[in-house]
């Protein structure tokens, strides 16, 4: 929360953002979240996920300096215990709008089968999630009149 507060009060640029700041200390993940979502997946099953943060349907909080905008007080503070081989997925709501929990779990399970190196796994999982989401969006567009 300290990092988020400092960034918020020192910001001089115009604009708004969502944020997910994560720190891993031993076996504890500490996170501060504004709008974006995160999940912890153990052995291919989601065991923890952050709440959706929005004022109304498709109207998310936006961190921005100014009277009419949200400030850092809307941030969600999260603490989760993790184990070796747990997978943490942090993403914008765009991913979670297009991939249901069970679909995300399957993508991670399939990736864990071929796990040889963490960096390779991270890149492969990010690529698989992006490709999967793109396919779903394309399929949806084809359904439009």
From TrEMBL:
Keyword entries, A-Z: Hydrolase, Magnesium, Manganese, Metal-binding, Protein phosphatase
Cofactor(s) needed for function: Mg(2+); Mn(2+)
Residue ranges the record marks as coiled coil: none
Domain of life: Eukaryota
EC number: 3.1.3.16
Gene Ontology molecular function: any one: protein serine/threonine phosphatase activity
InterPro entries per the UniProt record, alphabetical: PPTC7
Catalytic activity of the protein: O-phospho-L-seryl-[protein] + H2O = L-seryl-[protein] + phosphate; O-phospho-L-threonyl-[protein] + H2O = L-threonyl-[protein] + phosphate
Family membership noted in the UniProt record: Belongs to the PP2C family.
Protein's name according to its UniProt entry: Protein phosphatase
